[in-house]
Automatic annotation (TrEMBL):
It comes from Paenibacillus flagellatus. Keywords: 4Fe-4S, Cytoplasm, Iron, Iron-sulfur, Metal-binding, S-adenosyl-L-methionine, Transferase, tRNA processing. Catalyzes the methylthiolation of N6-(dimethylallyl)adenosine (i(6)A), leading to the formation of 2-methylthio-N6-(dimethylallyl)adenosine (ms(2)i(6)A) at position 37 in tRNAs that read codons beginning with uridine. This is tRNA-2-methylthio-N(6)-dimethylallyladenosine synthase. Monomer. GO terms for cellular component: cytosol. Its cofactor is [4Fe-4S] cluster. It catalyses: N(6)-dimethylallyladenosine(37) in tRNA + (sulfur carrier)-SH + AH2 + 2 S-adenosyl-L-methionine = 2-methylsulfanyl-N(6)-dimethylallyladenosine(37) in tRNA + (sulfur carrier)-H + 5'-deoxyadenosine + L-methionine + A + S-adenosyl-L-homocysteine + 2 H(+).
Length: 508
């Protein structure tokens, strides 16, 4: 078993020097996080804990104070932010969008590529003067970057005005860390290199009609370019009854769309040793809950099995959209990325999915310029994109991440070539998106209305079941409702359309 309590966890998972910074019973230790340590995957059980995260003496500490959290990176981070917002509000803090009136500012960071890290250091530069003008401001850095020793050292040396650094496995400790920062003089650093228990019942602040639900934490895939398995720890699935209870509760509260989250949702349940329950089983159970739309992200092609395809083909609230990251169309490159599937296997899977769900929308992630990627290998990515015909894709230039195996490979593709490949790939993807959207001209689609468009307040904005963006004219009161829109002007990024008359008439 790996630590049933936080104290145990600290002692059992961290190697290296420990210095108590305080002799209080909630002492904070400075523990340099280690990617090497994080890579060790033991057989230890992960315990599920259901206690409250807010100590009694912290329940009013935020009264009269305001907080702001800036979130970088993926949906997992967005959702972690919701948890931190929930905790801060249970401590009495109120939200603000204005840095100048914030008493606590947290940067929830992303480590996936170098430019994500650069943005955070840029933001820290801006916050320095704010901290100088308002020394009572509490500044914290959390998220994936905090799991990297080099980042923690850089902040301690060059950005010593930061008050708290805490890792992805320490989020539930936020109230205790804030208390330490208020009462202590030194920077509070708490980063566990290895994952701890699964903490249920943490408060979450959710707004609007869409909600994220974590079904698992961590990743054991260790793709050679990726830092996530180190920063997020080993795969740990939440118990099905906890996930289902959370979704039922959201359904009762009237949420219209739920996205199940995990770094590799297809590995859900593989870590249970007492029950045989997979991601397909979970989706089949979620299907029976009265929520109009259920999505999931992100899946790994390797673990995407026939049972799951069968369940998704039942549709209902399970939407026809699958994000299926391919990364490269070349079997050789996929091997060096340690993706554990070939181009052929991926295409076979896509074929199966399309046969079972003919109107499925497929999206993907692609990396160009991976070490050693030749022109021919890049052309294989282009031909795979032509064959699959993705509706859209996230595309990236490879960015070496310290501590990952690919960072030791020779990064021999010239920068200019990487950029040209990215441009060509994006042009192809855009052309396909445009063509696919064109097929929707004249069709009527179901749209969940989000509200006024960010770019044009005269227009309402919403999403189809396949997550395509739709703009149309209509009364603001439709926000949060399902309507039908006839597509009149499909474009690459947005489908413009007209509200069908019956839906317009429903609004009084
Ligand atoms: N460089 C570039 N892109 C990366 N991704 C993950 N790690 C890297 C990296 N080192 C991309 C992958 C992944 C997405 C979330 O980010 O495509 O699917
Ligand atoms: Fe990273 Fe691969 Fe895990 Fe996705 S599956 S988080 S790309 S290691």
């Amino acid at each position: 078993m790996q630590g049933g309590s936080d104290e145990l966890n600290k002692d059992s998972t961290i190697s290296g020097t420990k210095q108590a910074k305080s002799d209080k019973d909630y002492s904070i230790y400075f523990q340099p996080p280690s990617l090497k340590e994080a890579k060790k995957r033991g057989k230890e059980d992960v315990q599920v804990r259901y206690e409250s995260a807010i100590p009694d003496d912290m329940k009013t500490i935020g009264k009269g104070r305001k907080y702001l959290i800036r979130t970088f990176g993926c949906q997992m981070n967005e959702h972690d932010t919701e948890v931190m917002m929930g905790m801060l509000e249970e401590m009495g803090y109120e939200p603000t969008e204005d840095k100048l009136e914030a008493d606590v500012i947290l940067l929830n960071t992303c480590a996936i590529r170098e430019n994500a890290e650069d943005k955070v250091f840029g933001e820290l530069g801006h916050l320095k003067s704010l901290k100088q003008e308002k020394p009572s401001l509490l500044l914290g850095v959390c998220g994936c970057m905090s799991q990297e020793e080099s980042v923690v050292n850089r902040i301690m040396q060059k950005h010593a005005f930061v008050d708290i650094i805490f890792g992805t496995h320490n989020i539930h400790r936020l109230p205790v860390l804030i208390k330490e920062a208020y009462y202590g003089k030194e920077m509070v650093v708490e980063v566990w290199s290895k994952e701890g228990d699964i903490i249920e019942n943490l408060p979450k602040k959710r707004e609007g009609m869409k909600a994220w639900v974590n079904i698992m934490y961590g990743c054991d895939k260790f793709c050679t370019y990726c830092i996530v398995p180190y920063t997020r720890g080993k795969e740990r699935s939440r118990r099905p009854q906890d996930v289902l209870a959370e979704i039922r509760d959201l359904a009762r509260k009237g949420f219209k769309e739920i996205t199940l989250l995990g770094q590799n949702v297809n590995a859900y349940g593989k870590d249970f040793d007492d029950i045989d329950y997979s991601f397909a089983d979970l989706m089949d159970d979620v299907r029976k809950i009265d929520v109009p739309r259920i999505r999931f992200t992100t899946s790994h092609p390797r673990d995407f099995d026939d049972h799951l395809i069968e369940v998704l083909a039942k549709r209902g609230n399970l939407v026809e959209h699958i994000h299926l990251p391919v990364q490269s169309g070349s079997t050789e490159v996929l091997k060096r990325m340690s993706r554990k599937y070939s181009r052929e296997l991926y295409l076979e899977l896509v074929g199966k999915i399309k046969r079972a769900i003919p109107d499925v929308m497929l999206t993907t992630d692609i990396i160009v310029g991976f070490p050693g990627e030749t022109d021919e290998q890049f052309e294989e990515t282009m031909s795979l994109v032509r064959e699959v015909r993705y509706d859209s894709a996230f595309t990236f230039i490879y960015s070496p991440r310290d501590g990952t195996p690919a960072a030791d490979m020779e990064d021999n593709v010239p920068e200019q070539v990487k950029k040209e490949r990215l441009t060509r790939l994006n042009e192809l993807l855009n052309q396909i998106s445009r063509e696919k959207n064109e097929q929707l001209r004249g069709q009527t689609v179901e749209v969940l209305v989000e509200g006024e468009s960010k770019t044009n307040p005269d227009v309402l904005s919403g999403r189809t079941r396949t997550n395509k963006l739709v703009h149309f004219r209509g009364p603001k009161e439709l926000a949060g409702r399902f309507v039908h829109v006839t597509i009149t002007e499909p474009q690459t990024w947005v489908l413009k359309g007209e509200l069908v008359a019956e839906d317009a008439a429903r609004v009084v």
